[in-house]
Amino acid sequence: MKLMAASESTSELYSLIADIESYPHFLPFCTTASVIRWSLPDAHDKRWPARATLGIGWGGITEEYESCVYCIPGRIVEAIAGGATTALSNDELQIYKGISGMGVGLPGQRKDLEKGGDVFKSLMTRWEMKEVEHEGNEATKTDPQIEFEFNNPLYAALSSAAIPSVAGAVVNAFERRARDVLRKKHL
Known about the structure:
Layout: E1 2-4, H1 10-18, E2 30-38, E3 49-58, E4 61-72, E5 76-82, H2 116-119, E6 120-134, E7 137-150, H3 153-160, H4 163-185
Antiparallel strand pairs: 1-7, 2-3, 3-4, 4-5, 5-6, 6-7
């Protein structure tokens, strides 16, 4: 759990995390990112990423996978691949109903994504944001979660020692990005 400064409003931080196509510019091990499907418009007529292809690489090994992305505006950004399922309720998923390929990973449905199943047995990344008061100021509390299991035993063995540092590096990269991008907006 992390607290972000008051200048980093929940909506700004949320938009930064949901900006998947910017990931290769700051996220370690992310080589490419492309949103291939968008949500239906939300209550403010905004569309959010619904499905994305990401490339990851380390030490000369590169892979590409596809994930379902669930954005609950201002609160949650969740991406799943492989056999992972979302913990979001059907009510929270209304802007994804009827989008081709978005039944994958919905509650009660466990079906591997076409490409996500090749790399990951299971992948779930989730950022939950909440406005809070901290030391008399407004702040955003974030709760980042990263859970994954590789299909390839070699990848699993190589990553087992590095998992805590990789997850920490990802969270730190988002914190730096928030400071850099949002500071510029407030100057």
